């Protein structure tokens, strides 16, 4: 039976009045970051459009990390794999091959001017390697952020405006952070700008901001400090009256505690070199990490 014009109109209006289904959310870009500091930077730029997972978690040490099958699965499902480069993740290429991932690998340190550090190897003395800790100079972190932005735009052109806006905001925050660090160091007497840390993780910070760092271990934590180096540092503390020793969150504190005791320096507190703290902790983001460290340095060296 044919519908009357009035009935057809009523049905049409009824259909139009039905609630509409919410638009399906765009699928997030799946990204894997090699370690916690880098994961934070990717989240700052990616925002809600990116789902970030981390291989080496908070308070974890990327130098000695051993990937698991679960890590291979995580990398296999990623669209982007963000790594620091400069020799930090010696395990990551093997992991990528084992996972058979199709992810684009992004080396965020591309464009950074690297510096050399040194590592202690038993029976071979000190060997020079690139220092991977480029993020300790805020200016280098700005290079990381632009590389992250460009990689996200290439992978997800529809999010270009979001990524560019997030990056611009964050770069402005990094400029303010850099100025904050420089102002804090300017208040430290030049004669007291000497610090002992566990491993040689602050070379870029030293070059950028003018604090001398002395460490019994080289740029990697995978080799133990030699007795000769420990004795040398203890003598140096006494001769130069170095005021403070700082414990790193990724290292066993016992060596530094011994050096502080025998050298007569005080423990200046915990600092964060290669990993963020737990969420809600004093270094739960990159900016919090740099701010925590400079506040610790300032408190120990100006006292």
Describe this structure in words.
This protein has ten helices and ten strands. With 303 residues, the chain is of the alpha/beta class. The protein folds into two domains: 146 residues, Rossmann fold (3-Layer(aba) Sandwich); 115 residues, Rossmann fold, CATH 3.40.50. Strand 5 and strand 6 form a beta hairpin. The protein is globular.
Name the poorly predicted regions: 8-24, 120-126
Number of strands: 10
- Compute the CA-based radius of gyration: 25 Å
Number of helices in the DSSP assignment: 10
Major sheet description? 4 strands, parallel
Main CATH class of the largest domain? Alpha Beta
In the sheet with the most strands, the strands line up as 2-1-3-4
* CATH architecture descriptor text of the largest domain: 3-Layer(aba) Sandwich
Strand content: 15-25%
Q: Name the shape in a single word.
A: globular
| Gap between N and C termini | 95 Å
CATH homologous superfamily (4th level) name of the largest domain: Nitrogenase molybdenum iron protein domain
| Class by SSE composition | alpha/beta
Within the CATH hierarchy, at the fold level, what is the topology of the largest domain? Answer: Rossmann fold
Q: Which series of helices and strands comes N to C?
A: HEHEHEHEEEHHEHEHEHEH
User: What is the mean pLDDT?
Assistant: 86
Work out the helicity level.
40-55%
Q: What is the number of domains?
A: 2
């Amino acid at each position: 039976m044919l519908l009357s014009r009035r009935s057809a109109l009523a049905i049409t209006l009824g259909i139009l009045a039905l609630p509409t289904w919410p638009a399906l959310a765009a699928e997030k870009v799946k990204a894997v970051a090699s370690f916690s500091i880098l994961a934070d930077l990717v989240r700052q730029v990616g925002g809600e459009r990116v789902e970030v997972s981390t291989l080496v978690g908070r308070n974890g040490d990327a130098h000695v990390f051993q990937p698991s099958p679960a890590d291979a699965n995580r990398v296999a499902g990623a669209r982007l794999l963000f790594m620091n480069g400069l020799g930090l993740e010696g395990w990551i290429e093997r992991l990528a091959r084992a996972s058979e991932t199709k992810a684009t690998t992004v080396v965020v340190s591309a464009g950074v001017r690297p510096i050399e550090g040194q590592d202690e190897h038993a029976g071979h003395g000190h060997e020079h390697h690139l220092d991977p800790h480029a993020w300790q100079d805020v200016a280098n972190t700005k290079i990381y952020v632009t590389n992250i932005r460009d990689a996200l735009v290439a992978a997800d052109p529809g999010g270009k405006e979001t990524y560019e806006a997030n990056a611009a905001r964050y770069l402005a925050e990094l400029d303010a952070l850099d100025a904050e660090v420089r102002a804090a160091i300017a208040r430290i007497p030049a004669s007291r700008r000497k610090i002992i840390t566990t491993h040689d993780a602050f070379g870029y910070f030293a070059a950028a901001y003018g604090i001398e760092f002395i460490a019994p271990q080289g740029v990697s934590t995978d080799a133990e400090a030699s007795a000769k180096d420990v004795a040398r540092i203890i003598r140096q503390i006494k001769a130069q009256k170095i005021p403070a020793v700082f414990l790193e969150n990724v290292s066993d504190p016992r060596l530094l505690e011994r050096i502080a005791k025998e050298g007569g320096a005080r423990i200046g507190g915990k600092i964060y070199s290669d990993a963020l703290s737990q969420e809600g902790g004093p270094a739960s983001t990159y900016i919090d990490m740099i701010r925590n460290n400079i506040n610790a340095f300032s408190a120990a060296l100006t006292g």
